[in-house]
Amino acid sequence: MRKDVSISSNIDYSSPSAAFTFDVNKSTLFKKDSRNYINILGVEQLNTLENTSLLDIFLSKDNVIEPHYHQNAAELVYCIAGAATVSLLNPFTKKIQNYPIKPGQVANVPQGWWHYEEATEDDTHLLAIFDAPTPEVILGSDILKFTPANIMAHTYCLDEEQWKKTIAPIVPTTYIGPAKGCNRVKSATDQAPYKPTMPQQYMKPCPYPSPYRYPSMYPYGTYY
């Protein structure tokens, strides 16, 4: 005998304001230039979403989604075009794991894991899918820029003035690096060809804005 299945939801699907479609091309989170930008879809853009959201990411070769972590969501990175390497810090092994992906391939980033993505081809298109209506994020540039220099120097036995000088060029809420106009002097390590390690196996964060506005308009730890 068939039992009725009840669906638990806080969404009023009968409301005239309930939306079921949205043009993600009109919702830009961040734009570095015409080839490097991020579009967003979350509950702020489509109010019938529950436990899902996404970032539509476009990158040219050597551009990087800066190191960051999502404290409230896991992330599945799907490659649509081009190629990228998804790198994550495994908190259990204390090792960086690099996963090169091409069209049709994915890399999974568990919730709260430190990670970043680098395009290895021009015209790379990635789709980052989250199991939260609004993923939260902590960005590496914000951690470096907003943690007091005296705390960093005291904690890690650093020269405070040298630390201030080192992080001076960092732009808070970078999103896509390197920053435009970067004239960094490359080290010997940079000259060596990049050789990502092959994956052994696949290993579960501030809300995003709509549309994108200048990051300083938001409190630290939030995109809204």
Helicity level: 10-25%
Q: How far apart, in Å, are the first and last alpha carbons?
A: 49 Å
Oligomer designation: single chain
Number of helices: 4
- In total, how many beta strands? 12
Bulk shape: globular
The SS-based structural class is alpha+beta
Q: Characterize the biggest β-sheet.
A: 6 strands, antiparallel
Low-confidence stretches: 197-224
SSE sequence, one letter per element: EEEEEEEEEEEHHHEH
DSSP strand (E) fraction?
Answer: 25-35%
Strand order of the largest sheet: 1-2-3-10-5-8
Mean pLDDT score: 85
Based on CA atoms alone, the radius of gyration comes out at 19 Å
Overview of this protein structure:
It is a single chain. By secondary structure, the protein is α+β, with helices and mostly antiparallel strands. Helices cover 12% and strands 29% of the residues. The chain has four helices and twelve strands. It has helices at residues 140-146, 149-156, 160-167, 188-191; strands spanning 28-33, 36-41, 53-59, 64-69, 75-81, 84-90, 95-101, 106-109, 115-119, 124-130, 138-139, 176-177. The strands form two sheets. It has a six-stranded antiparallel β-sheet with strand order 1-2-3-10-5-8, with no helix packed on it. Strands 4, 6, 7, 9, 11 and 12 form a six-stranded antiparallel β-sheet that branches. The longest helix has 8 residues, at 149-156. The protein is globular. The protein starts with 27 loop residues before the first strand and ends in a 33-residue tail after the last helix. The model is unreliable at 197-224 (pLDDT under 50). This is Cupin. It comes from Lysinibacillus boronitolerans JCM 21713 = 10a = NBRC 103108. It holds the Pfam family Cupin_1. Residues 27-164 form the Cupin type-1 domain. InterPro entries: Cupin_1, RmlC-like_jellyroll, RmlC_Cupin_sf.
